[in-house]
Amino acid sequence: MGARGAAQAAGRGSGAQPGGGAAAAAGPGPAPAAVRPVGVVRGAAHRAHRLAAVPRGAVAVREGQVLGGRYVLERLVERGGMGEVWRGHDPDLDRTVAVKALPLDRIELRGGTETAAKTRRLRIDFFEREARAMARIDSPRVAVVHDLGREGDVLFLVMEFIDGISLAGVIGEGVQLTLEQVVRWTVQICEGLAAAHGCGVIHRDVKPANIMITKDGDAKVVDFGIARFQDATRSRSGFGTLLYTAPERFDREGEETYRVDLYSLGCVLHEMLTLKPPFGRADSSDAYLVHQHLHRPPPPPSESRAGISPDLDRLVLRLLDKVPTRRPESAEEVARTIERVILHDPRAVVRADVVRDSGGGRPHVNTAYVEQIRRNERRIRELHEWEDWMSDVVLEARAQQAELTGESGDARGAAALYQSLGDDCARGLGWEHARVKLAYVAAARWTDLIDDEPEL
C-alpha cells in the first residue's frame, strides 16, 4: 500500500478549528504543525494569523497596562468576540499568569425596561459570583483562578498560565488521535468536570478550544463560568460554541443542569475519535446547527471511523441524547465507562446496560504499554525544546512512539503517526531521503493490520 492509501486508512482529516482557551499559551516554535508533538507551544506565525482575523480597534486593554495595580500585560495571546486573553506577569509573586479581559461595553441591554447602569451592575455582580465559584474548584484538571477585578470598563480574570496547546489545535492538525490519548484526555476532562459539578459549577461551554493540553501531555479545562457571562453579550462565540451546545440550552425557559456539560463532552469525544463534531462544521450556519442539535439523531462515530465498537458508539450516543435524564449519571461514570470500553480495565465498574461484551475479549489498548507511551511522549516534547526537529534523535523517538502505539493494540494510531512522520521527513529532508520511505512502509505495515485489530 502506498503512502496515500496509508494516510486514508489511518483516518487523516480535518474537523476542528485551532484555538486556545482562556489560559492558552503561545510561544516560539519553528517546527511545522504536524511535526510539533502534542503540548508544544505554538509559533509566532500562528499567533499573527489568529490576531489578523480580528477587526482593528477592538482592543480592550494594551500591552504594558497594569490591571488592578498589580498585573502587567505582556503579550496578547488571543482575541475573541467578547474579550481578550493576555499573558501577564504578577510581580508580587513573580509568576506568569493568564489575564482574560472582558469589556463591559459589549453587554447587550435586553427588554428595554432596565437602565444601562442597573444592567451593568447586575452583570458585574454575576461575573464576580461566577468567578468566586470557579475559584472553589480544586482539581489539577481545571485551570486555577487567582484573582478577579475591574479596571474602568473592563472586567478581568487572572488565571493559571498554561504552557501548551488547545485540544482544538491538536485536532486541527488532522492526525488521528491515538486511543491512549482519547482515554487519557477524556478521563482527565471528566475529572475536571466532576470537581466542578461537585462545587455546583456548570461549565456550559465545553469544547476543544476550552481544553488545554499541557506540555506534560495532560488535559486541563479552562473558562469555567464564562459562558453565562457570554450569554449577556452581543457577540456569543457563534460557530465554535454552537457546535458543542446541548439542545436544552436553546430553551430560555428550560432548566440547565450539569448534563449540558455531558452533552458537550459527547460532542468533543466524537470529534476526538473521528476528527469532526457530530453535527455540522465550523462554517455551518447558526440556524442549521441549532436544528441539528434539537432534532437530528446523533450519528455514531463508527459511521465515520471503522472499527469502533458498539460499546463506544453506545457511550457517545448516550452522551448526545436529546433528553438530559437519559445521559450518563455523572462525569465519573463517563470516565469509568471509557476506561472499561477502550482499556478493558476490570477495575472500572460500570452499569451492565452501558458496556456489553464486544466480542473477542482482547484489550483495545494493552494497559502494559500506557506508561511507556506517556513517558516517550514526554521525552519527545523535551527533545523538541533542545534539538532540531529533523535531528535523528527526535525522528527515532517519534518512530518509537508509533511502534509503541501499534504494539499496544492501536494499529490505526500507529499508521497515523508513521504517516505524519513520513510527511514531515519529506518536507524537511526531501522525498528521496531513506527516512521517508521507512516511515511510509511502516505506515502501510500497520494499515494492513487494521483489519485484524480488535474493535475500539
Summarize the structure.
The protein has 456 residues and is an alpha+beta fold. The protein is built from 15 helices and nine strands.
Question: Structural class of the secondary elements?
Answer: alpha+beta
Q: Any idea of the CATH topology of the largest domain?
A: Transferase(Phosphotransferase), domain 1
Tally of contiguous helical segments: 15
Total number of β-strand segments? Answer: 9
Number of domains: 3
CATH superfamily of the largest domain: Transferase(Phosphotransferase) domain 1
Distance from N terminus to C terminus (CA atoms, Å) equals 23 Å
Which strands sit side by side, in order, in the main sheet? Answer: 1-2-3-4-6-5
CATH-level-2 architecture of the largest domain:
Orthogonal Bundle
Shape: globular
3D architecture notes:
The longest helix is centred in the N-terminal third of the chain and has 20 residues, at 116-135. The strands form two sheets. Strands 1-2-3-4-6-5 form a six-stranded antiparallel beta sheet. A three-stranded antiparallel beta sheet has the order 7-8-9. Residues 1-22, 24-58, 109-113, 232-240 and 349-363 have low confidence and may be disordered. The chain has helices at residues 3-9, 44-52, 116-135, 167-172, 179-198, 226-230, 238-242, 259-274, 286-295, 310-319, 331-343, 370-386, 392-407, 411-429, 434-448, and strands at 66-67, 71-79, 84-90, 95-103, 145-151, 154-160, 164-166, 211-214, 219-221. It has 456 residues and is of the alpha+beta class. It has 15 helices and nine strands. Helices cover 41% and strands 11% of the residues. The protein folds into three domains: 3-10 and 366-452, no CATH class; 45-160, 2-Layer Sandwich (Phosphorylase Kinase, domain 1); 164-343, Orthogonal Bundle (Transferase(Phosphotransferase), domain 1), CATH 1.10.510. Strand 8 and strand 9 form a beta hairpin.
